[in-house]
Design goal:
binds zinc ion; Reverse transcriptase
């Protein structure tokens, strides 16, 4: 059920990206406003380059990560689905956000390390999308990393809520 609820806005955002809307449109809804604040400039610096890319599909879980709207404590608290924004996967007491998940959470360091070794470079919030846009291999490596982690987070969330997988 949760998946169905969040699927619509995330898909809308994916389409929004792909249609190449600029940051000045769709500012009337809170989702788009918070999305812009969160990531549009930081992750997708060059919207034209993003929309005209020849490779790379944006699936449901990748969209969750790009938008920060998904299985993140910070987002779930914001929409009233969780009482705390804190990350469950480490003991740092940090908010569970898209950035924390990939780049700050000690529980996810090994996964990042594997990606960085494979691509032979350091990945961070400010270059991750640029690296994905460089080529198919980079896109595939990074999107598989993100999709894998988002899937795990979603399953852990279901487990905490006592749902059947
Ligand atoms: Zn953490």
């Amino acid at each position: 059920m949760y998946q169905n609820i969040s699927y619509i806005p995330t898909l809308a955002l994916a389409n929004w990206f792909d249609q190449g809307h600029t940051t000045t449109t769709h500012t009337h809804t809170p989702v788009f406003r918070s999305f812009q604040k969160y990531s549009i400039r930081r992750l997708i610096k060059d919207v034209k380059k993003w929309t005209s890319r020849k490779h790379g599909t944006v699936g449901y879980r990748l969209t969750q990560w790009l938008t920060g709207h998904g299985s993140f404590g910070a987002y779930r608290r914001k929409i009233g689905k969780s009482e705390t924004a804190t990350c469950y996967h480490c003991d740092r007491g940090q908010d569970d956000t898209a950035e924390h998940t990939l780049f700050r959470c000690p529980a996810r360091l090994a996964a990042r390390d594997r990606v960085e070794r494979k691509l032979r470079r350091i990945i961070h919030m400010d270059n991750i999308v640029d690296v994905m846009l460089e080529g198919e291999e980079q896109w595939k490596t990074i999107s598989e990393w993100i999709e894998g982690i988002m899937k795990e987070k979603e399953e852990e969330e279901w487990r905490r809520e006592g749902r059947r997988l």
